[in-house]
Amino acid sequence: MIGAMTNGLVEPLRVLLVDDHAMVRSGFAMVLSVEDDIEVVGEAADGLQAIEMARVTRPDVVLMDVQMPRMDGIEATRHLVADDLGHVVIVTTFDRDDYLFDALQAGASGFLLKNAGPEQLLDAVRAAGRGHALLAPEVTRRVIGRMAGEDAPTDRPEPAELAHLTAREREVLVMLGRGLSNAEIAADLVLGEATVKTHVSNVLAKLHLRDRVQAVIFAYEAGLILPTEE
């Protein structure tokens, strides 16, 4: 995790790059390696190699492609998360990766588009290294809305866990489902960001959710957010 201390010094964020295209890995490595707080500790060309490399290098963050030979990124993510071998960020072209929702269910902490700029890549890696889920609203809602199915019934019974939330926490959950950041939620509800952070933490704890990505999935599956909602 970013900010780890060893002998009083801050350790750099350790990153493993996984993609079957060497040019993609090289491009990411060039952007990441010049940063003082980030260290690229390895590269892998498929899911099986990623698991092997992760066990050796113990990365904080794994940038994971989806479509790869031998083992795809979804199955590799499932193994990495189960063995606590780093926070996985799926790197996708999106239009081709219709099964991205499966990767999130497998435990990925979020996703990044392959055409993202250098600053977005750095922000994504640092956010994942801090244990934050990555939610790009313009992509998150489309992906999860599509995978939830536009024909899903709207009269489904509410999950019993929702009864544990206060009215305010339920509002926050809905906004998380729409992909809003803490700052955006604070502005909409006229609250301080520290207060919103507390509400988000309470929502995750009460619903036994790992991170904000799981909160988005929960909101859709619970019917709180419609796939077609704008």
What labels would you give this structure?
alpha/beta; five-stranded parallel β-sheet; two-stranded antiparallel sheet; 14% strand; Rossmann fold; 2 domains
Describe the structure.
- It is a single chain.
- The protein contains ten helices and seven strands.
- The strands form two sheets. A five-stranded parallel β-sheet has the order 4-3-5-6-7, with helices on both faces. The protein has a two-stranded antiparallel ribbon with strand order 1-2.
- The protein folds into two domains: 5-134, 3-Layer(aba) Sandwich (Rossmann fold), CATH 3.40.50.2300; 153-221, Winged helix-like DNA-binding domain superfamily/Winged helix DNA-binding domain (Arc Repressor Mutant, subunit A, Orthogonal Bundle).
- It has helices at 22-33, 47-57, 73-82, 100-105, 118-129, 137-148, 167-177, 182-189, 193-206, 212-221, and strands spanning 5-6, 9-10, 13-18, 38-44, 61-65, 87-92, 110-113.
- With 230 residues, it is α/β, with parallel strands linked by helices.
- The protein is 46% helix and 14% strand.
- 37% of the residues are buried.
- α1 (22-33) links the parallel β3 and β4.
Count of distinct structural domains: 2
Estimate the mean pLDDT confidence.
83
Low-confidence stretches: none
Rough shape?
A: globular
> What is the CATH architecture descriptor of the largest domain?
3-Layer(aba) Sandwich
Query: Class of the largest domain, according to the CATH hierarchy?
Result: Alpha Beta
Outline the biggest β-sheet. Answer: 5 strands, parallel
* Cα distance spanning the termini: 35 Å
Strand content: 5-15%
Tell me roughly what share of residues is in helical segments.
40-55%
Tell me the CATH superfamily of the largest domain: Response regulator
